[in-house]
Design goal:
- The protein is α/β, with parallel strands linked by helices.
- 27% of the residues lie in helices and 20% in strands.
- The strands form 4 sheets. An 8-stranded parallel beta barrel has the order 1-2-3-4-5-6-9-10, surrounded by 4 helices. A 5-stranded antiparallel beta sheet has the order 11-12-17-14-15, with no helix packed on it. A 3-stranded antiparallel beta sheet has the order 16-13-18, with no helix packed on it.
- Helix 4 (85-94) packs parallel to helix 10.
- The radius of gyration is 27 Å and the shape is globular.
- Keywords: Apoplast, Glycoprotein, Glycosidase, Hydrolase, Secreted, Signal.
- Residues 76-341 form the Glycoside hydrolase family 29 N-terminal domain.
- Residues 1-25 form the signal peptide.
Length: 491
């Protein structure tokens, strides 16, 4: 029996409706904004989100009460009879770290692994009967505790007789890189610096060749040096970034180890063509290595460092030096635990949760396409969503985003602002208002900007005004927190 013409018409109408609906859906979908170059690599993004990582300075200096050894130390001095790398990892976890970096060789040239290229190593000590390997124990303990591992190999070597012979020493150094990057599994970060004494033997380091070797051997590693290429020094050892801090620099303007570049490293460059964010290295004690007469910084100082590093678009690299028995001091672990607990107390609760968000505009408008870039994304607790305004909005009226807090919301004294840096760093200047009154202002934001207010406020509306000449700002979070330690410090 032939089909009814009415059935044909109904089917055709349904097909047309489906096509129109599908076309309409595609028409309404709004693509993300273009990135503002440069942008971070995936390993750089992962590194940035760690926020706090740990350094362990341990070696011959631990046994000679030195910071810079001479290179002439007898390997028999090295004997950490109670060494327990798992205890180090517990210290790192207490501080909230997810990556730990070991000084595998410092300037004295003594190697904490049994290198095949020198006798000046743990192989020549009585520790573990000459069969010990601090690097091996360190990496194994890190993995067992769910932490990623990194290594520091000092370019300046005061022991090796090849130092000063450009080709011979660079070959020696590169051979040791091969040992460390092929013998211990995945390494997440490797540390280079240009430190050397004023009267040190003249030596040209082949940094670019070394960097190429590192990337060849470890595809997902981040390389730290003054000049990156992945992570840069912040320009001081206090743990403080500049109040303006761009993740971008021009690497061509930086020479590793050269004096006079500290301010450039500290602040970055808004016109920089390279994404090389800063790492803030600082020790919890006055020295980098353990000394019996030193103690850890107080909690108030560690929190100040946190606000001026993590809170200024950096990662905090916090050093905890094990003692001559091979253990991190109990008092240092207690301070690290206190620090980690304080950070969790402050930022574990977001007092912006439950707020209604509105903004100067939303990319895609109100026709459904703007949902992916809505103002409410800044309070959803996710890293992968963000608010994006329209470009025209900023040119005409300026960009702003506002949170309307629930009635009787608790007071706060910390404002957290975060950019969606996967698409570049954009914010040049910003200011924060609570119920129309200014409470904070600053320049760059980047991954995270923290404003610690002198006193708690309990306003209903929090508005952030933004100047972003490099493109519409993309904010992934605006958070509000209460820091009880501010009030304790001012009592």
């Amino acid at each position: 029996m032939a089909a009814s013409p009415l059935l044909f018409l109904a089917a055709a109408a349904l097909a047309v409706a489906t096509l129109v609906s599908s076309t309409e859906a595609w028409r309404l979908a709004t693509p993300p904004p273009l990135p503002v170059l440069p942008v971070p690599s995936a390993p750089q993004l992962k590194w940035q989100r760690r926020e706090v990582i740990m350094f362990f300075h341990f070696g011959m200096n631990t046994f000679t009460d030195s910071e810079w050894g001479t290179g002439s130390e007898d390997p028999s001095l090295f004997y950490p009879g109670a060494l327990n790398a798992t205890q180090w990892m517990d210290a790192a976890r207490a501080a909230g770290a997810s990556l730990v970096i070991l000084v595998a060789k410092h300037h004295d040239g003594f190697c904490l692994w049994p290198s095949a290229y020198t006798a000046h190593s743990v192989r020549s000590s009585a520790w573990r009967g000459g069969s010990g390997d601090v690097v091996g124990e360190f990496v194994a303990a890190a993995r067992a505790r769910g932490l990623d591992a990194g290594l520091y190999l000092s370019p300046w070597d005061r022991h090796d007789e090849r130092y000063g012979e450009e080709e011979a020493y660079n070959e020696y150094y590169e051979a040791q890189l091969h040992e460390l990057l092929t013998g211990y599994g995945s390494v997440s970060e490797i540390w280079f610096d240009g430190a050397k004494g004023k009267n040190a033997t003249n030596m040209t380091y082949h940094f670019q060749e070394w960097f190429q070797t590192v990337k060849q051997l470890q595809r997902f590693i981040n390389i730290f040096s003054d000049d990156g290429p992945d992570v840069r020094w912040v320009g001081d050892e206090k743990g403080f970034a500049g109040t303006t801090c761009w993740s971008t620099v021009n690497r061509s303007m930086i020479t590793i180890g050269e004096a006079g570049i500290e301010k450039y490293l500290n602040e970055g460059d808004p016109r920089g063509s390279d994404w090389v964010p800063p790492e803030c290295d600082v020790s919890i004690r006055p020295g980098w290595f353990w000394h019996s007469n030193e103690t850890a910084k107080p909690l108030s100082e560690l929190l100040e460092i946190y606000y001026n590093s993590v809170g200024r678009n950096c990662v905090l690299l916090l050093n905890a030096p094990p003692n001559s028995t091979g253990l991190v001091e109990d008092a240092d672990i207690a301070r690290l635990r206190e620090f980690g607990a304080a950070v969790a107390t402050i930022f574990g609760t977001d007092l912006a949760a439950g707020s209604a968000a509105r903004a100067s505009s939303e990319r895609g408008g109100r026709r459904g396409g703007g949902a992916g870039f809505a103002a409410r994304n800044v309070v959803d607790g996710r890293d992968d969503t963000y608010w994006a305004p329209t470009a025209e909005d900023g040119r005409r009226n300026g960009y702003w985003i506002e949170l309307r807090r629930p009635a009787a919301a608790p007071p706060f004294n910390v404002v957290r602002i975060q950019e969606h840096v996967a698409l570049g760093q954009r914010v040049e200047r910003h200011s924060v208002y609570v119920d129309g009154a200014p409470v904070a202002n600053g320049t760059t934001v980047g991954h995270k900007r923290l404003h610690r207010l002198p006193r708690a406020v309990a306003g209903r509306t929090v508005r952030v005004w933004i100047t972003a000449p490099r493109g519409p700002p993309l904010l992934t979070a605006v958070g509000l927190h209460h820091d009880p330690f501010v009030e304790a410090d001012t009592m």
